[in-house]
Design a protein that fits this description.
The structure is a single chain. By secondary structure, this protein is an alpha/beta fold. The protein has one domain: Aldehyde Dehydrogenase, Chain A, domain 1, CATH 3.40.605.10. It contains twelve helices and eleven strands. The strands form three sheets. Strands 8-7-6-9-10 form a five-stranded parallel beta sheet, sandwiched between helices. Strands 1-3-2 form a three-stranded mixed beta sheet. A three-stranded antiparallel beta sheet has the order 4-5-11. The radius of gyration is 20 Å and the shape is globular. The protein starts with 9 loop residues before the first strand and ends with a strand.
Length: about 300
C-alpha cells in the first residue's frame, strides 16, 4: 500500500470577476470539526476590500441598467451552478460544522449539509422570480390633482456590503446577498468567520454563472479586521448583516455618520425562516424611491 500525497487547496478572493490572492500575501487555515486541516483561504486586507468596492462601483450602473428579467436569469443560473456543486458544498458544511449540543434556538434550527444547499437554491430561485416583480410591489401610481401621471418607482441604492452569520455559512450568505442583488445593487460580501469555504465555492459558482465582473465580490478573511473598514467606507451605500454581537452592530451603525449608509442587521434566527426571508420586503431596505411626474393629455 502506498501513501498518497494530498495537496490542500488554497481558495482565493473573488474581485472584479477574477481570483486574486490577497495583496498582503496572508492566508488562514480552515480545520474540520475533528481537527483535520481542510484547506487554506486568503486573508483579505483593507486594500483588498477597497479594490472590491471600486470594482462593485464600476459595475453597478451596468447591472442596474440591465433588464430585471436578465438579472433574474443570472440569479437562476447561479442556483444551477450551486446545484452542480451540491455534494462538494454539503461536505464542506458538514466537515466544519460542530456537533449540535444543548438547546440553543439557533443551533436547533440551523440546517446542515444537503438541507442547507437545498434551502440556498430555493432562496436564489425565489429572488430570481422577484427581480422583475419587485417594482410593481414596492412602486405605485400616485393619485394627484392636475393633468399629470405620478409614479413612484424603486431604484437600487448602489454598493451593498454583506456580512453573513457564522451559522449556516452558505444559506446565511445567500440570504443576505439575493435581496439587494435582484434589485440592481452590486455586492461586496464577506465569508463566515467560522467556515469560509462555502463562500469560496460560491465565488466559483458566480464565475461560471454568467455574473458580470464586479457585480459580486467575495472576500475571505477576519470580520474583526474588515468590519470597521466597511463601517467607515464612504463608497458603500448600504450594509446587510446578520448574527452580529451588539457591539459590532453598534459599530456598523456608527459608520452611517460617514455617508448616511443604510444598515440592516437581522437577528440570530430571522434569516432561517423561509416565510420571512422570501418576502419582497427584504428587498425594500436596498432601494431608493424615485417619484416621476409626467404630463397627461386632457
Amino acid at each position: 500500500m502506498t501513501n498518497r500525497l494530498e495537496v490542500l487547496k488554497t481558495y482565493k478572493l473573488h474581485i472584479d470577476g477574477k481570483f486574486p490572492r490577497s495583496e498582503s500575501g496572508r492566508s488562514l487555515p480552515v480545520h474540520a470539526a475533528d481537527g483535520r486541516l481542510l484547506a487554506h483561504v486568503c486573508r483579505a486586507s483593507r486594500k483588498d476590500l477597497r479594490e472590491a468596492v471600486e470594482a462593485a462601483r464600476k459595475a453597478q450602473p451596468g447591472w442596474q441598467q440591465s433588464t430585471a428579467y436578465l438579472r433574474g436569469q443570472i440569479l437562476y443560473r447561479i442556483a444551477e451552478m450551486i446545484e452542480g456543486k451540491r455534494d462538494e458544498l454539503a461536505a464542506l458544511i458538514d466537515s466544519v460544522a460542530a456537533p449540535r449540543r444543548g438547546k440553543a434556538k439557533a443551533a436547533k434550527k440551523a440546517p446542515r449539509g444537503r438541507d442547507e444547499v437545498t434551502a440556498t437554491i430555493d432562496r436564489l430561485v425565489c429572488f430570481a422570480g422577484w427581480s422583475d416583480k419587485v417594482a410593481q410591489v414596492l412602486g405605485c401610481n400616485n393619485p394627484v390633482a392636475g393633468p399629470h401621471y405620478n409614479f413612484t418607482v424603486p431604484e437600487p441604492s448602489g454598493v451593498v456590503a454583506v456580512i453573513p452569520p457564522d451559522e449556516a455559512p452558505l444559506l446565511g450568505l445567500v440570504s443576505l446577498m439575493a435581496p439587494p442583488l435582484c434589485a440592481g445593487n452590486t455586492l461586496v460580501a464577506l465569508s463566515s468567520d467560522r467556515n469560509p469555504l462555502p463562500a469560496a465555492v460560491m465565488a466559483e459558482a458566480c464565475a461560471t454563472g454568467d455574473v458580470p465582473p464586479g457585480v459580486i465580490n467575495i472576500l475571505t478573511g477576519q470580520r474583526e479586521e474588515l468590519l470597521p473598514c466597511i463601517a467607515d467606507h464612504r463608497d458603500i451605500d448600504a450594509v446587510h448583516a446578520a448574527g452580529l454581537t451588539a457591539p459590532w452592530a453598534q459599530r456598523l451603525r456608527a459608520g452611517t455618520a460617514e455617508n448616511l449608509k443604510r444598515v440592516t442587521v437581522l437577528g440570530p434566527t430571522d434569516w432561517f425562516d423561509a416565510q420571512v426571508m422570501h418576502s419582497p420586503w427584504r428587498i425594500e431596505p436596498f432601494v431608493e424611491m424615485k417619484t416621476i411626474w409626467h404630463p397627461a393629455s386632457a
